[in-house]
Amino acid sequence: QIFYSVTIALMKRVLEEMDDSQWWFFEEAINIQHLQEGGSFSNVLIRRYDKTLKPLFIQIIRFIDRHSNLQLLMPDCLDENDKPLSKLWLEIYSSWELCQSTLFKIVASQKHEKMDQKVFQCAFPFSWIIYEYINKKIDDDNE
């Protein structure tokens, strides 16, 4: 439930930042060419979804699954000792300062991070973000 609500809130925030976010529904409804190509208004909306929301969702999943990070949330991979780790994962994912702001910048700018070809298994949720966050704080303190 937390994962879903945080992801939806992030997607909503990104869509609000896009130039055409307020009027896209209306513009699609009055665009005769799109209606003719789609055949129906629902088909036009599905095309819009495919063009806008799918890539956005894919970027979010791609980011949060870096180093197989999502495995830390999978119920079949968790034993009783890992429940706090799963809770920590959700807390970090929900945090604007730790995770959401970084993810928002990447997704909103539609910048595609180059992913390493090496495969790593996370043992700690969002370890790369925490590492970068701590280094930034240290750099800020040194200035």
Describe the protein:
This protein has 143 residues and is mostly helical. It has one domain (2-142). It is built from seven helices and no strands. Helix 1 packs across helix 6 and helix 3 (32-38) crosses helix 4 (41-64). The longest helix has 24 residues, at 41-64. The radius of gyration is 19 Å and the shape is elongated. The mean pLDDT is 77.
Quick structural gist:
The chain is mostly helical. The chain contains seven helices and no strands.
Major sheet characteristics: none
Q: What is the number of helices?
A: 7
User: What is the overall shape?
Assistant: elongated
What fraction of the residues are assigned to beta strands by DSSP?
under 5%
Number of domains: 1
Secondary-structure class: mainly alpha
User: What order do the SSEs take from the amino end to the carboxyl end, as H and E?
Assistant: HHHHHHH
Write the layout of secondary structure elements.
Elements: H1 2-17, H2 24-30, H3 32-38, H4 41-64, H5 83-94, H6 96-108, H7 127-142
Helix pairs in contact: 1-6, 3-4
What labels would you give this structure?
143 residues, 7 helices, elongated, mainly alpha
